[in-house]
Every structure is written in C-alpha cells, then in structure tokens.
Amino acid sequence: MVKITAVYQGDLHCLLTHGPSGSTLPTDAPKDNMGKGEAFSPTDLSAASLLTCVLTTMAIYAQRHGIELKNAQGEVLKEMSADPPRRIAKLTLHIRMPRGIKLEDRPTLERIGTNCPVYKTLSPDLQILTTFTYPD
C-alpha cells in the first residue's frame, strides 16, 4: 500500500506528497477549466501515468530478460471530451524504442507495455491508440 497525500493550496493548486519518498508534485487546473496551467492538471497526471507505466513495465520485463531499454522515449497526447461530462476522451501514445531491440523481442515488449496496470485500470470507454517505432 502506498499513501499519497494532497493539500489544497488555494487558487486551484494542490501539492501532492508521495508517502514513501517524500517527493512532491504540484498540480493546477488547466487553462481551459479556470486554472492557470502552471503545473500538471489531474487529467495530465492520468495521461502521464499511462505513459510512464507502459515504459516502466516494459523496462521491468527488459531488465529481467537482458534487453537494454535505456533511452526508450515516449509521448502522450491527451484529448478532452467536447461534450459533458468533462473527461479524457482519447490518449494517443507514441513509444520510440532504442536501437538494438531484436525483432523477436518486439511483440512481447509491446504486449507487456499495452497490458500495464494503468492501461488495464482505465475505462474501456477511453480511446487509447499506441504506436511503437524502432530506429533499425
């Protein structure tokens, strides 16, 4: 179990604290929803959570199987719904894999990534598009 706390600081800002490490992360409401966009919004964190979960889950598998995944990169584009209720409507992930990933390892890494805990936790109503590219 991991405890995460939040303190509302006013002006639509919160400060999250990760219990085990003490690391903090500020949040703000987005500009299109009364905020200043000065930090990650709660929905930004959902998108970032998916992206880092895909990378981390693949890295765990890679480490266990002697595959070098260092310098893998990713980006996520978050699209909010145009109509109520306000929600994330679509996440588009693009993962750029490092050089040297063997052809036979690629399908397994992609399957591992797209079955990460966050991927499996998000609503099936959420459209998630994921692509992987390899430099070689």
* Shape, per Cα inertia axes: globular
> What is the ordering of alpha helices and beta strands?
EEEHEEHHE
- Order of strands side by side in the largest beta sheet? 1-2-3
Alpha-beta content class: alpha+beta
Strand content: 25-35%
Whole-Å distance between the termini? 41 Å
Radius of gyration of CA atoms, rounded to a whole number? 17 Å
Output the number of helix runs. Answer: 3
In round numbers, the mean pLDDT is: 96
* Main β-sheet description: 3 strands, antiparallel
| Number of beta-strand segments | 6
The low-confidence parts are none
* Percentage of residues assigned to helices: 25-40%
Can you put this structure into words, describing what you see?
With 136 residues, the chain is α+β, with helices and mostly antiparallel strands. Helix 1 (42-64) runs antiparallel to helix 2. The mean pLDDT is 96. The chain is built from 3 helices and 6 strands; from the N terminus they run E-E-E-H-E-E-H-H-E. It is globular. Strands 1-2-3 form a 3-stranded antiparallel β-sheet, with no helix packed on it. It has a 3-stranded mixed β-sheet with strand order 4-5-6, covered by helices on one side. Strand 4 (73-80) and strand 5 form a beta hairpin.
Short description:
This protein is α+β, with helices and mostly antiparallel strands and 136 residues long.
Distinctive features:
136 residues, alpha+beta, 3-stranded antiparallel beta sheet, 26% helix, 31% strand
What secondary-structure arrangement, pairings included, does this model have?
Elements: E1 4-10, E2 13-18, E3 24-28, H1 42-64, E4 73-80, E5 88-96, H2 106-113, H3 117-121, E6 127-133
Parallel strand pairs: 5-6
Antiparallel strand pairs: 1-2, 2-3, 4-5
Helix pairs in contact: 1-2
